[in-house]
Amino acid sequence: MPVEAGIYRVNRVVNHEKVAVQVGEAGEEPLTTTFVDYATNPREITLRSISSIVDIHTRVSDLYSSPHDQVAEQLRLTIETVKERQEHELINNEEYGLLSQVTPEQRISTLSGPPTPDDLDSLITKVWKTPSFFLTHPEGVAAFGREATRRGVPPVVTDLFGGRFLTWRGIPIIPSDKVPVENGETTFLLVRTGEERQGVVGLFQPGLVGEQSPGLSVRFSGIDKSAIASYLVSLYSALAVLTDDSLAVLDGVKVGVFHEYE
Predict the structure, then answer these.
(1) How far apart are CA 244 and CA 145, in angstroms?
(2) Residues with Cβ < 8 Å from 123, sequence gap 6 or more?
(3) What is the pLDDT confidence band of residue 7, given thresholds at 50, 70 and 90?
(4) Angle value at C-alpha 218, between 84 and 226, nearest 5 degrees
(5) Per-residue pLDDT tens over the stretch 41-56
(6) What count of other Cβ atoms lies within 10 Å of the Cβ of residue 199?
(7) What is the Cα–Cα distance from 203 to 43, expressed in whole angstroms?
(8) Which of 86, 112, 140, 236 is packed most tightly, with the most Cβ within 10 A?
(9) Separation CA 193–CA 240 (nearest Å)
């Protein structure tokens, strides 16, 4: 979602219960008056940058760019690393990461440790309005697959983004190795996305100089006296959770439980 001047303001309603409505009945009773009370000081989320400078000697780019363009390949690998760090920050950043924005009411724990179908069903009750996807570590995906198969309800596989993913209740389970695993435990997140759904939205700055994709720019910074050409790679991004019920977490998910089958 594009932002202006690198800042996004999250407008929150103070109390939904104060919005009064009236059910029509016979007669001509006066209609109820009401108003929506928004927070006077909304939270402001500032885009954060992930940057790197790629230095390439002109001799290398001149002599060793066949069959592969040295500049293009080194920039491609740097961009991949920057995007990997972006994924880590979107999940773990203490200010705007998903894990740091979950409210206490939207956190639950597993029933017995391993991620069972019952646990994921409980998570769905927290984000029941058009949930978009589960997110967990690959070991969490494998652990849920074992528990569901043991119950006799192996997860359905679906095609998404050119890959194949497990699903539960029709909701895809997206793996990410940026979801932390500590002491044999990880977490499952359930996310609703989109501004129109009042969910979680990704933020970026449009119209950057040297823009390669939303929020990502590559700029040539010049050649110094040692014939070193420099390229500045910058990525600006953040996340905003528009409503509390668009994000929930299942904590204490054990990933090291295995079963024996006859």
Answers:
(1) 28
(2) 108, 134, 188, 190, 248, 249, 250
(3) confident
(4) 110
(5) 777 889 999 999 999 9
(6) 22
(7) 14
(8) 140
(9) 10
